Amino acid sequence: MAPPDRPALLSTYLARRPDLIRFFTARLKSSAAAEDLVQEIYLRLQRADPGAVRDPTAFLYRTGWNLMLDQLRQQRRGAARDAAWSGLEVVGAGEVALDPAPLADAALEANDRLRRLLIRLDTLPAQTQRAFRLHKFDGLSHAETAARLGISRSAVEKHISAALKQLVEDDR
Amino acid sequence: MTHQDDGVNVSELGGEASDWFVRLQAEDAGADDWLAFERWLGEDPAHEAAFRKVEAAWVDLDAAPSAASLSAHPVGHTAQIIPLPVRARPARRRWRLPVAIAASVAVVVGAAGVMTVVSPRRAPAPASGLARARDIPIPGGGSIHVDAGTTLSLRRSGARIEAAMGPGRALFTVPHDPRRRFIVRAGAQTITDIGTRFDVQRDDMRLRVAVADGEVAESDSDPDYNVLRVSAGQSAVSGPGEGGARLLLASGAPIQKVYDRATLGQVVGDLNRIYARPVRLAPGCAELSFTGALIMDSQDAVLHRLAAFLDLEVAPSPTAVLLSKAASTPR
């Protein structure tokens, strides 16, 4: 299948718009938030490289999902942000803190969540950890991770899924 | 957003939710996968809750401090660390850098967008860029939206924050703050913000800076030389070297681009950023030299002006336009 051009991508968007709104309304529990998000997908679409898109419909969902994850990240880390940067001051010895914001409770909470996740990550089997870290922290795709580890892509996906399952388990 | 942690149920669903998460992240996830996922979500509210937990863990891990991830990494992990280019000593400095350049810290957005703190001594290696677009905060306020495939590293040294950008694109939102100085380096070019929102696009040849609000100053590697100020609503595109094209485009009214001994390849590169329908060049055309101003109104009009000037033939098709040298015609 030839890669779609921009008009093709836009017409897919228009055709799929009701589906996208339905999907993201269910996920965001708000039709207004979904409308905004689907509008944002449109804006992203105009900057996207159509040649890089293989499946326009999947691309639309994926773009929306990424936007949603960005929002979630901000919600969960909004307060943690200053804390994270403040932490850097320790490493940058001899330098002046620009924004020596006191750690907010929410930031402490976020750090705590993160610490627990990292501790749990350390307890996973070595190969599972390797696959997960390459994918999550080094940003390798499943295929790239597979090549790096010399295992199949489906094995990589099993490792990553197993890691995620362990990470969310007992997390209460 | 409610979290239902009803024990066993959620725990069992964790595996299913994780499988879905991985499946949707796969490079070849297709429309069918999304529709199947939607059905799964709709089957039971607990599915949504379980999936949300996986998402939450995923984004929480983005804040992983490098120390934690680096220490546990196998050798070879540093291959993903992006070295900052060694700065040539500027002829003049307007501010004094604090003691420790050696102690300064590079905050690197690794390929996964994880912020990684590395010491500048760490072995450099080629970087592969972000796998996905993401927003990263600027210390002291503001953020950078970094497109997928773009490498960007942030370094702070005293009151100076420097972003080094590889090929790609990033949108910077930088509130004005007199206590700090924010600088973007992209190849030989330096962009200094004066409190603003601006977009930087870099490819092998060119750098394009578009300013939405405020004003930025763009300069060659020596900040005291050849400074170009770009204000809201304007864009500046600069090419390689001093002899290359330096163009200033004021948007709003039809954009006019001025080319000084630019190659046709460069001009077409610009056209392809402005217009949706791609322009391709027949062999031997990319090196043609063009000096002049082009008003970017309609693509057809621009192409015909260009064609008349360089004696080219324009062959439009539904998906692209081909430019080739006109067959020598008797007059």
Structure characterization notes:
The complex is a heterodimer of chains A (172) and B (331). Chain A is mainly α and 172 residues long. Chain A contains 8 helices and no strands. Chain A has helices spanning 6-28, 31-47, 56-77, 80-91, 105-122, 126-136, 142-149, 153-168. In chain A, helix 6 crosses helix 7, helix 6 packs across helix 8 and helix 7 (142-149) packs across helix 8 (153-168). The longest helix of chain A has 23 residues, at 6-28. Chain A is globular, with a radius of gyration of 20 Å. Mean pLDDT of chain A is 78; it is low at 79-104. Among the domains of chain B are: 9-63, no CATH class; 131-252, Jelly Rolls. Chain B has 6 helices and 18 strands. Chain B has helices at residues 8-25, 31-43, 45-60, 66-71, 264-274, 299-310; strands spanning 105-109, 115-118, 134-137, 143-146, 152-157, 160-165, 168-174, 181-186, 189-202, 207-219, 228-231, 234-238, 246-250, 255-263, 279-281, 289-296, 312-316, 321-325. Chain B is flat. The model of chain B is unreliable at 1-8, 66-128, 221-227 and 239-254 (pLDDT under 50). At the A-B interface, helix 1, helix 3, helix 4, helix 5 and helix 6 of A face helix 1, helix 2, helix 3 and strand 3 of B.
